[in-house]
Write a structure and sequence with these properties.
By secondary structure, the chain is α+β, with helices and mostly antiparallel strands. The chain has one domain: Inhibitor of vertebrate lysozyme, Ivy (3-Layer(aba) Sandwich), CATH 3.40.1420.10. It has five helices and five strands; from the N terminus they run H-H-H-H-E-E-E-E-E-H. A hairpin with a 2-residue loop joins strand 4 and strand 5. It starts with a helix and ends with a helix.
């Protein structure tokens, strides 16, 4: 009886955690929030030689977004967008602290890491790299 109650409690926690993760919007929707938009935009300020599709996404949010999710026990929100009509390995992964005040990003090209934005530390880099391997 006690074991069953514990398992049911654990299942409820897992389901509610999944529901929270599923509740995050797509990146283009999240960027409607001024704090997230400011953190995201700052990543690319003064950056040169951006992929054309990424320049387009920065301008008009034209990309193939996936819903965001929490990572690292809810300490970060992770979002991904890929190049329209060429998703195979051409992604931008954006990592935010909840509330959007700080952000980092990683761009991949043909499945390889092309560059990082926002000077992520080792832990944030590891989260972004892990996202690209999923």
């Amino acid at each position: 009886m006690r074991r069953t109650a514990m398992l049911l409690g654990l299942a409820a926690i897992i389901v509610s955690a999944q529901a929270v993760a599923a509740a995050l919007p797509y990146l283009f929707e999240r960027l409607r929030d001024p704090a997230y938009n400011a953190g995201f935009t700052a990543l690319f300020r003064g950056q040169h030689h951006l992929a054309p599709w990424l320049r387009g996404y920065l301008r008009d949010r034209n990309g193939v977004d996936t819903p965001g999710r929490t990572v690292a026990g809810g300490r970060y929100e992770l979002y991904a967008v890929c190049e329209p009509h060429n998703c195979a390995g051409n992604f931008l992964y954006a990592l935010f602290v909840p509330g959007g005040r700080k952000a980092w990003a990683m761009l991949t090209r043909d499945g390889r890491i092309e560059r990082f934005f926002g000077a992520p530390g080792p832990y944030q880099r590891a989260l972004l790299v892990a996202a690209a391997k999923e």
